Each structure stands twice: as C-alpha cells, then as structure tokens.
Amino acid sequence: MVMPQALIEQRPDVVKAWLQAELDAATVFADSKNAMEIAKMALSQTTGFQEKVAMGIRVRLYAEGRRGTDVRIDLAFGFTPEALDLINKASAFTRRNQEHSV
C-alpha cells in the first residue's frame, strides 16, 4: 500500500480509515470460512483463471516443510523484493491493457 505524504499530513483521518479498511479486508480474507465467497468474487472480477484454480489458491495450506503452519495469507507491509516484483508485473499488465483499449 502506498499513499502520498501530503495525504498523510493533511488528512490523517482518511489515512486511519484506509488502514482500518485494509485491516478489515485482511481479517475477512484470512478467515477460511469466507474462502468460497472470496474466490467467487475474485473470479467475477478477473479473467483467465479456472474456478478450481481460484478456489485452490485461497484455501490451499502451505506445505508443512515450508513453514510448519497452516498460514493461509501472508501480507508483507513493506517493499519486499516479492512485493516490488508483483508491483512491476501488475504495472506492466495495466500498461499493456491501456494500450490495447485506446
């Protein structure tokens, strides 16, 4: 998540609400009882994924050898190499789609 410094300084109330919304969304996402609803929502807003793949991504447990836990979501709150890679891929995807829609 990225936000302008001016927003942080001028509207801390908006920043606080934004962060609360992010936390609320992460809490809902992390609860396995919401898995099917979240997968259906994701499928309705994306293309190119089969339903079984979308469902599996959300409910699959990490391999025991990887972490030894059943963590279903791992949100990095920082610019990790993985996060930067994802940002770059998403930006390139968005640019390609904008070029094709013009």
Structural descriptors:
6 helices; single chain; 102 residues; extended
Summarize the SSE layout with pairings.
Layout: H1 5-10, H2 12-30, H3 35-45, H4 51-59, H5 64-67, H6 81-101
Helix pairs in contact: 3-4
Largest sheet entry: none
Compute the number of helices. Answer: 6
- Alpha-beta classification: mainly alpha
Fraction of residues in helices? 55-70%
Q: Helix and strand string, N-terminal first?
A: HHHHHH
Gross morphology:
extended
Q: How many strands in all?
A: 0
Query: Which ranges are low-confidence, i.e. pLDDT below 50, for 5 or more consecutive residues?
Result: 61-65
How far apart the termini lie comes to: 28 Å
Count structural domains. 1
Gyration radius, rounded: 17 Å
Walk me through this protein's architecture.
With 102 residues, this protein is mostly helical. The chain is extended, with a radius of gyration of 17 Å. It is built from six helices and no strands. Residues 61-65 have low confidence and may be disordered. It has one domain (5-101). The longest helix is centred in the C-terminal third of the chain and has 21 residues, at 81-101.
Task: Briefly say what this structure is.
With 102 residues, the chain is an all-alpha fold.
